[in-house]
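During the first year of the project, the team set up a workflow for recording each protein of interest as an amino acid sequence followed immediately by a discrete structure-token representation. This format lets reviewers and collaborators read both layers of information side by side without switching files. As required by the reporting guidelines, we include two representative entries from the current panel. The first entry is reproduced here exactly as it appears in our internal archive.
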Amino acid sequence: MNAQRVAAAIEATALVKTYTQGDEEIRALRGVDISVAAGEFLAITGASGSGKSTLLHILGGLDRPDEGQVWVEGSALSDLDDEALALLRRRRLGFVLQFFNLLPTLTAEENAAFPLLLDGAPDALDRARLSLERVGLGARAAHRPAQLSGGEQQRVALARALVTEPAVVLADEPTGNLDSKTSLEILELLKETAEDGQTIVMVTHDDKTAGFADRIVGLADGFLEVRPK
């Protein structure tokens, strides 16, 4: 039976994750607890290799913890089989990654519509156009990725993440490949998304980038600690 609890938009308790590298065991997470409210913009900071992306992937159901539990809108991810988990990721979670992961043969509109196309939504392209307009790219809907700048491609990736109106957007170094002006634009769009009521969880190694969030936590040695803004 699927465990339900009245909770934050996304929550995790006692997360442990260990990787094996040759004969060495690397403990990426050592008992992480985290709770993010609906409409909150949380930044997770830490040095490269600190486990930030590992934590984000576990929160998004892209990886499973060795121990611990994750809830999205009160539903325990461990109770979901692979098909149900894929459906939840597609419908209730949005992902914005450092690399844009756009399909080169599809237009911006088709890339933004991709989660809806997988679901067979008849209004997929109409909703994708609205999502592109939301990120300021309505006029570029017919362009393919090669015709777009890096910042425009990241906006398409954000439009794709938002097209299903997910409860939570998970952003992994979303400005890592962008210049300072374009980074600012993406961060402002993420902040506006949180102000519209959607939850943002962003990992970054950059303190200035983290400063756009409502709350900052740091990850070091597998543990989280609250950090001042």
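The second entry, processed by the same pipeline in the following quarter, appears below.
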Amino acid sequence: MKVAIAHDFLVQNGGAEKVVEEFHTMFPDAPIYTSVYSPEIMPASMRNWDIRTSFMQKLPLKKISHRIALPLYPLAFESFDMSDYDLVISSSSAFAKGVITRPDALHLSYVHTPMRYGWMHHAYLERENMPALLRTMLAPTLHKLRTWDAVAQLRVDKHIANSSIVADRIQKYYRRSADIIYPPVDTTRFTISSTVGDYYLVAARFAPYKRLDLAIQACNTLKRPLKVVGSGRQDEYLRSLAGPTVEFLGRVPDEQLTKLMAECKAYIMPGQEDFGISPVEANACGRPVIAYAAGGALDSQKDGVSGILFGEQTVESLCEAMITLECTRFNPQLIRAHAQQFDTTVFRSKVLSIIDGFYEERANKSINNRINPQ
């Protein structure tokens, strides 16, 4: 069976890219089809992969606004020749599901979310602080992208959602059901530390919807140490908010981040994530998580066991959660056990089960059609 993997773009290293790494581990001979690839940003291990980019790789995208390039992504994925493959797995939050496969091939799409700026554009654009004129100019493009997305998802044989909220969105926007398989976490990489510091930790891209501003302002208010890992377009803004207890570390190696997680007082996830792998990694270190009670956190966290959930995206609500956590005794072994339900072995088993089930169902239909021809 020949397998291919498709992913929207390889220009940032986040949770979705960790899922791609796991698919590559499962199918090491499968080429990775993607719109654009920046090897200097992605893990060095990827440089040995068979990564096949679209015509967009040759464009000066660093000089072109991402929003201007939006109409090109559907064409990029439809331009790939997937006729050699029996199984195509797309890892998609926007465009990769649009690849065109053979009629008899299985297309399995792991959906991180339906296109956020297409289907949830009002909230997305508001958080991006986009000028009203630019929103108006962008509206026709987003309308076309929604239409394309609705058609492209019909090419998918089976949708897999990475959380309950994403499954709900798939049902809402695509009118399709989806199995839920949580993203993989290699819990064997993480251990419980005998040393725990007094600092809180956040590690994320500096994007508006991540709401790192809440974590910074809450630690300013309570005068608690906060270590911030990551980078992004909000860098200058977030640094301008930071008080003397907030430390920016930039991007750090995986080994350093693992140590920071294992020794933090708690990990903070102030934004609404589709799932959120990093908090589960912190749990795998036996450390509690403070998370906004929405989205993927409702799947990944158990209030009072693996951490504390807060109900409003306000500094006051987050401060209350931090104080509650500091008054709560957590069991690191119990937290780690909670994280192990998201282990890579669980992910692999469930994905392979869906693939096997699809081919078994297809074989049974073929037999029935021969026995009972129409």
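For the second entry, the following points were noted during internal review. The two ends are 30 Å apart (CA to CA). The chain has a mean pLDDT of 92. Both points are flagged for discussion at the upcoming steering committee meeting.
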